[in-house]
Design brief:
Helices cover 56% and strands 12% of the residues. The chain is an alpha/beta fold. The protein has 3 domains: 131 residues, no CATH class; 208 residues, Rossmann fold (3-Layer(aba) Sandwich); 159 residues, 3-Layer(aba) Sandwich (Rossmann fold). The strands form 2 sheets. It has a 7-stranded parallel sheet, with helices on both faces. The protein has a 6-stranded parallel sheet with strand order 10-9-8-11-12-13, with helices on both faces. The longest helix has 29 residues. The chain starts with a helix and ends with a helix.
Length: 529
């Protein structure tokens, strides 16, 4: 009931603003009349004239700037003249109708005045909106090409690193080039630069503050920006997607949700509550706490007007969660927008590279075990680890325990360009993962030219075809991983063949195609509205 009332108020907010502005004007007029007459001792008729003038300007600017949102300055005097003309016409009609209702039809004068006030208010509202404060251009061409205003709500944005931040380093600007008006709101460790503040293009909410305050600030700013926007494009489930859902409930504002992973599963796995994989997670029942996470995620996805899944695998998961198929669009990630890439050069030492978050489902612990075994035959083997996360400390201890202190380099979080440099001097890219929507790191590795070994889970098979464009191995199967790594380390011809075929595979993951499909989803949703 609360959401319904709120949405109706939002939909009819212009009428509500019109009524409130009228009330404020009446208070201003009466206050001026009292102050000038009783406090300053002016003649009441003179006070009435001054109060009318003050009320007129108060009413004009409230209706122009607030009710109808007309910030133009070139037509102010013309608008003011028309506004005064409407006021005088209302005075004439009020007098004439009062005489007609009271003297001719015998209606009680108070009721007659009330009826007239409603009629004149409706007429004034229509004239203000359609004539005086009408901002529509007379050009039909301009009308057809109305700029759509999109609010991108995200939890990660440059200079942050990672797949979503990389995508957003390019998407807003390319949408602007295609005649969209774009604003971005994000959590951030970096302050807004001067250009962002001046232009109001990016709004950053500092991460380093109490969670309740961070969320409150984000929601308040997102709420304000959502009034400006035609559509919200949310890139995360929590908390961004939840805020988009809440704003839709309160205002009816539509939102698109980019679905790149199941946050409920990630949270439950990271906290050690479950050991099931993503597919099993959808079907099984768990504790109340986990089911609450699943329920929240289900509502955010199911109530989105469109869901952009980054793989066919995740599109299937979205349907299992409860999203109707007609609301799902599969749009692959792209990595072909970095410009010049470093030239691939096979390293002198056998070098493996991993890139990703150091979390349980990435299987880095097993990779360390495999490297320790391969080291017996190839003591100079090297494992480059790009990324950070909750598992880093325990993984470093394990590496030292396995005698790999000199065989593992811990790079921490790096930018995409820095990761390209490491990929370009590695023999194999290895990703022993139990969960991937669509692996951004695999696409990056393939683009640079390093051969990929990963698992056959999630969206991985949509990127890597086993034995053709890479190598697929069961998750955490130590012997299979050791066999695959040793085979490819010792077979340069096969490595080169897989890497060359991978370049052809990347034709499916083009930036222009991703952009065109995203724009089609946005325009299709706005066209319906």
């Amino acid at each position: 009931m609360v959401f319904f009332v709120s949405r109706q108020l939002y939909k009819n907010r212009r009428i509500l603003k019109f009524i409130i502005s009228g009330g404020i004007t009446a208070v201003v007029g009466l206050s001026l009349l009292y102050a000038l007459t009783d406090l300053l001792g002016l003649w009441y008729l003179f006070s009435a004239v001054l109060a009318f003038i003050g009320s007129f300007f108060c009413s004009f600017f409230l209706q122009k700037l607030w009710t109808f949102g007309d910030k133009s300055q070139g037509r102010v005097y013309r608008q003011m003249s028309l506004y005064m003309l409407v006021a005088l016409m209302n005075l004439v009609f009020n007098t004439a109708l009062m005489y007609l209702f009271v003297d001719i039809f015998g209606i009680w004068y108070v009721l007659a005045q009330a009826i007239i006030d409603v009629v004149l208010a409706i007429g004034s509202f229509l004239i203000y909106g359609s004539v005086i404060f009408n901002q529509k251009t007379s050009s039909s061409v301009a009308s057809e090409k109305r700029v759509l205003k999109i609010l991108i709500a995200t939890g990660i944005y440059p200079p942050d690193v990672g797949g979503p931040a990389t995508l957003l380093s390019r998407l807003p600007e390319d949408l602007r080039r295609r005649d969209f008006d774009i604003k971005v709101i994000t959590y951030s460790d970096a302050p807004s630069d001067k250009l962002e503040k001046t232009a109001g293009l990016v709004w950053r909410v500092a991460r380093r503050q109490p969670a309740w305050l961070r969320y409150a600030k984000y929601f308040w700013r997102m709420w304000r920006l959502a009034h400006w926007a035609d559509l919200v494009y949310a890139t995360d489930l929590y908390s961004v997607g939840n805020f988009a859902r809440l704003i839709k409930k309160l205002t009816g504002k539509k939102y698109i949700l980019r679905f790149a992973g199941d946050s409920a599963w990630e949270n439950a796995t990271a906290k050690g509550w479950i050991e099931d994989d993503l597919v099993q997670f959808q079907a099984k029942k768990y504790s109340r706490q986990i089911e609450q996470l699943k329920s929240k995620r289900q509502k955010i996805l199911a109530e989105a007007d469109k869901v952009i899944a980054v793989s066919n695998f995740l599109a299937g998961i979205a349907q299992q969660i409860g999203v109707s198929s007609d609301r799902i669009n599969v749009i692959y990630n792209a990595v072909d927008f970095f410009g010049d890439l470093p030239l691939y050069r096979a390293p002198a030492k056998p070098t493996l590279v991993f890139s990703g978050r150091l979390v349980p489902w990435k299987g880095v612990a097993m990779l360390l075990e495999v490297v320790a075994k391969i080291k017996i035959k190839q003591p100079d083997i090297l494992l480059e680890i790009l990324g950070d996360g909750s598992e880093r400390a325990s993984l470093e201890k394990l590496a030292n325990k396995l005698g790999l202190k000199d065989n593992v380099n811990w790079h921490g979080r790096v930018s995409e360009r820095e990761s390209h440099q490491v990929f370009a001097r590695s023999t194999l890219f290895v990703l022993n993962t139990n969960y991937e929507g669509l692996p951004y790191s695999v696409l990056n590795a393939m683009q640079v030219g390093v051969t990929v070994i990963t698992t056959s889970v999630g969206g991985n098979p949509e990127v890597v075809e086993h034995g053709v464009s890479g190598w697929l191995v069961p998750y955490n199967n130590e012997s299979a991983w050791q066999e695959a790594i040793e085979r490819l380390l010792n077979d340069k011809v096969l490595r080169d063949k897989l890497a060359q075929n991978a370049k052809k595979t990347l034709e499916k993951f083009k930036w222009q195609e991703m952009l065109d499909k995203t724009i089609a989803v946005i325009k299709g949703l706005c066209r319906k509205e």
